[in-house]
């Protein structure tokens, strides 16, 4: 039986990072990219003409990636690093593939661990009752297109 969480418990929007432009005296990393992702994402999130928040998030991620000319998975990971928590259907397929493969790899490869934000997202998915085996049911098979002369 799935956990029936309230809609407000299923989604947490990201929090912007503290602005650090260039290399600050205290050696904090440059956050211009993260700030731009956050600003474009939140600006577009308000304008998506849909009542379902997961669809709004997915559309805003795609819009942000297109406007910044970066991949959908990169934008999604940046937002997850800033605290975005949402159901699986709110994320692009490329990010879900990355998240699932990272989680599967960390189960057997103990030398590399998944990022803390990704572990927190997986914990969130488990808490709201997402399918734990969603990645196992995906049917991405490599096919070879061979030409056989007759």
Fill in the keyword field for this structure.
single chain, 150 residues, mainly alpha, globular
Task: Report on the architecture of this protein.
The protein has 150 residues and is mainly alpha-helical. The chain has one domain (7-127). The protein is 49% helix and 0% strand. It has 6 helices and no strands. It has helices at residues 7-10, 32-47, 53-68, 72-81, 93-108, 116-127. Helix 2 packs across helix 3, helix 3 (53-68) crosses helix 4 (72-81) and helix 4 (72-81) crosses helix 5. It is globular, with a radius of gyration of 18 Å. The model is unreliable at 1-6 (pLDDT under 50). Residues 1-27 are annotated as: Disordered.
List the helices and strands and how they pair.
Layout: H1 7-10, H2 32-47, H3 53-68, H4 72-81, H5 93-108, H6 116-127
Question: What's this model, at a glance?
Answer:
The protein has 150 residues and is an all-alpha fold. It has helices at residues 7-10, 32-47, 53-68, 72-81, 93-108, 116-127. It has one domain.
Roughly what is the average pLDDT, rounded to an integer?
Answer: 81
Shape: globular
Rg over CA atoms:
18 Å
Q: Helix count, per DSSP?
A: 6
Find the structural class using helix and strand composition: mainly alpha
Query: Largest beta sheet, briefly?
Result: none
Strand content: under 5%
Q: What is the H/E order?
A: HHHHHH
Tell me the number of strands: 0
Distance between the termini: 55 Å
Low confidence ranges? 1-6
Roughly what percent helix? 40-55%
Count of structural domains:
1
Region (Disordered): 1-27
């Amino acid at each position: 039986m799935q956990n029936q969480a309230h809609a407000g418990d299923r989604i947490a929007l990201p929090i912007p990072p503290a602005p650090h432009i260039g290399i600050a005296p205290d050696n904090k990393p440059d956050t211009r990219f993260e700030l731009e992702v956050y600003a474009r994402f939140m600006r577009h999130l308000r304008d998506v003409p849909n009542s379902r928040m997961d669809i709004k998030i997915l559309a805003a991620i795609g819009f942000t990636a297109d406007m910044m000319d970066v991949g959908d998975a990169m934008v999604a990971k940046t937002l997850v690093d800033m605290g975005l928590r949402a159901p699986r259907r709110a994320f692009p397929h490329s990010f879900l593939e990355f998240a699932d493969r990272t989680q599967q790899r960390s189960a057997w490869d103990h030398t590399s661990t998944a990022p803390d934000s990704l572990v927190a997202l997986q914990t969130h998915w488990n808490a709201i009752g997402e399918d734990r085996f969603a990645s196992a049911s995906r049917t991405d098979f490599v096919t070879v297109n061979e030409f056989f002369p007759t």
